[in-house]
Amino acid sequence: MKRTLRNWVAWMCVAIIGLLPGVVGAESKVTLEDLQKQMNEMRQNYEQQIGVLQAQINDLSQGKQPVIPKESVADNQESRQFLGTIRDEFANRIGGRATLGGYADIEFIDKRGEESFFDQHRFVPFIEAHVTDQIKIAAEIEFEHGGTNNNQSDGDIKVEFAAIDYELWEAFNLRAGILLSPIGHFNLIHDSPINDLTARPLVSRRVIPTTLSEAGAGFYGTVYPTEDSKVDYEFYLVNGFEGFKDFDPATGDADSNISQTGGLRGARGSQSDDINDNKAFVGRIALSPFLGAEIGGSAHIGDYDADGDNTLAIYAIDWTFQKGPFELIGEYAVVNIEREGRVKLFNDSRTKESDRIPGRLDGAYVQLNYHWMSDWLKEACPVIFKPESVFTLVGRYDVIDLGNSKSGVGDRERWTIGGNFRPTEDTVFKLEYQVNDGDRSRDEDNAFLASIATYF
């Protein structure tokens, strides 16, 4: 079958090539001016090539190493891939296709009533490779708290992102693998060096459990409605959340990963299987009407229980506005959770409301940044203050509600004031102070935090 298909395609190509001269002759007439123009272009190309060869001859005559144009290098690499050994081809792929980078951070945390400590929180290498001009693979491997083999074995190692992209057009591309779910904006830009505060927003930890990575596939792209505006979108089918399974009718017990103290953080799904046969949808559309403004809307909808009878839906809106040195960013997310069938039996068997799966979670944060730098600092100490260096003052308000409990379980507020210094765009030194209020069964009192984060 494959051989027949190849033969059919080959004959079609021969037929098309054979028809091309007739088609061209029927639709266009070659004039004397056209031929003269083509001849002049060919003469210029040959003269340029002769000039390059003459320069290489001069270098060799003077005992210098001739400069080989990039085109010649590329042709040589392609020949090595084609004709060289397997080792040569592999070495060329590593050197010519793959790039390695990443980011790291180190934090200092001083919580009221507890011992202060340093935490080498994250070390995240990036690996990216262009297999062809259209096919790309990218991955992140996250080492948290020193990895699993640290002194106390309380670290973690995981693949945070590993996706294959098939880039077709700017407006439409395919993606599959372990994906950063586009639910809200912070989940997509959670890298420590990007953000101006050490601690992540409460809504991005308990309501949208950042970092939320899910196995799936879909498409993404960018379109430009007007000259000054653009629309970015991502749409995927993924395994979804694992929130409820292994229900025992005799005792009413079950493996429940959704709570009024932890939110959705423990319900993140597996990368290798699905709790049910129903795939979840996740997608985001972001409109930038002009430079310095973006408004995004996103949703994550799918069944979270083993029976596939109950839907968990997250809806989020995010915004970014920049005007001069000021930047206003924020995000609001709400989760609606169905609780029928076995989930209802489980909830009815719980004596405490805080032990039940809540029907609704929501939260938000609003953050104001002010960027500044004085010219006299750059002049006074150019070793520290580079042309791209900048200070940022930061204020943020967080609020979350993780349930319906009248006792206030899961209700939390946080005020944060802080600042940071970026000697370069990729490196940041942060200081901040938190004031926490509300339910503290899983949240600490006021705290001082400091950190250093950098890309590499």
Tally of DSSP β-strands? 18
Helix content: 10-25%
User: What gyration radius follows from the Cα positions, in whole Å?
Assistant: 29 Å
Give the integer mean of the pLDDT values: 85
Structural class: alpha+beta
H and E order? HHHHEEEEEHEEEEEEEEHEHEEEE
* Amino-to-carboxy terminus distance: 50 Å
Shape, per Cα inertia axes: globular
> Main sheet?
16 strands, antiparallel, barrel
DSSP strand content = 35-45%
Cross-sheet strand order for the largest sheet: 1-2-3-4-5-6-7-10-11-12-13-14-15-16-17-18
Topology at a glance:
Elements: H1 2-27, H2 32-61, H3 70-83, H4 86-96, E1 98-111, E2 117-130, E3 135-144, E4 156-169, E5 172-180, H5 203-207, E6 213-223, E7 230-238, E8 244-245, E9 255-256, E10 280-288, E11 293-303, E12 311-323, E13 326-337, H6 342-349, E14 360-372, H7 375-380, E15 390-401, E16 411-424, E17 427-438, E18 447-455
Helix pairs in contact: 3-4
